[in-house]
Amino acid sequence: xxxxxxxxxxxxxxxxxxxxxxxxxxxxxxxxxxxxxxxxxxxxxxxxxxxxxxxxxxxxxxxxxxxxxxxxxxxxxxxxxxxxxxxxxxxxxxxxxxxxxxxxxxxxxxxxxxxxxxxxxxxxxxxxxxxxxxxxxxxxxxxxxxxxxxxxxxxxxxxxxxxxxxxxxxxxxxxxxxxxxxxxxxxxxxxxxxxxxxxxxxxxxxxxxxxxxxxxxxxxxxxxxxxxxxxxxxxxxxxxxxxxxxxxxxxxxxxxxxxxxxxxxxxxxxxxxxxxxxxxxxxxxxxxxxxxxxxxxxxxxxxxxxxxxxxxxxxxxxxxxxxxxxxxxxxxxxxxx
Length: 337
Description:
By secondary structure, the protein is mainly α. The chain has helices spanning 30-44, 48-51, 57-74, 82-88, 90-93, 95-109, 111-135, 143-164, 172-197, 201-220, 225-250, 259-264, 271-290, 297-321, 327-330; strands at 17-20, 332-335.
């Protein structure tokens, strides 16, 4: 691909949509809500809610996948754009089919491997997004920032692996009892270092809010791994929707260049209505199809691999479309106020 194409001036769609950095802080308040819910259930309701939460392996995995899927689907319409396809070139035309083929091949060979990969990449994606946003307000990204990013990713991926791959040599209780205390000590230390290095109040707020959410999440694991995953995915989903709606709205300010929104333009609906309705509808459809019995085991694994490829396509495309200087990034700005 011609690298000069990625240095084009901003797409002709008017001024970028501005996102408030304060707005991006609000999803973190869910951590307090979730922890309060768990405390009330344990101390006042005798854990009656916890007893009704999904416990078996297949139901747990399916619900996590369904919770993760809406924001994944919401990210795809923004790519249906001739100018973007021309810029990203082979990353889309070759990369996406390759991701699908690899996912299908692994799913047919051993579906458990897909679950393990999904666990690791999901937690990397969820936490890395929030760390990246906080990093925009930090002047320095040194060793402390590296540890601050990767320590929770490793710990959460380990929890994910234990829950979803039925690892027998370790349990969630072992991790919370042995690993977490050491991880907390290190994480609190690097958080303190970053707070001292932050040059703005909004930077300190983002570092503090993300750190508090991750620490509260590690406490929630003892209550329910499902509730912990649900909290992190909801925070991630809300922030992702803010970015997608802002981006897709910016691309439609003066001229609708996106094919998806051009087809829906006669409806006269704004992006903030179209995108959630579309993504939730597709999620419901996938949920319905998952419960349709396949005609054979091989066909079932192929369908499993096809559905599983959606997150991997998402993680792959997100890796380059939101990089600094990309066409996607030029359509939005984050205001530190």
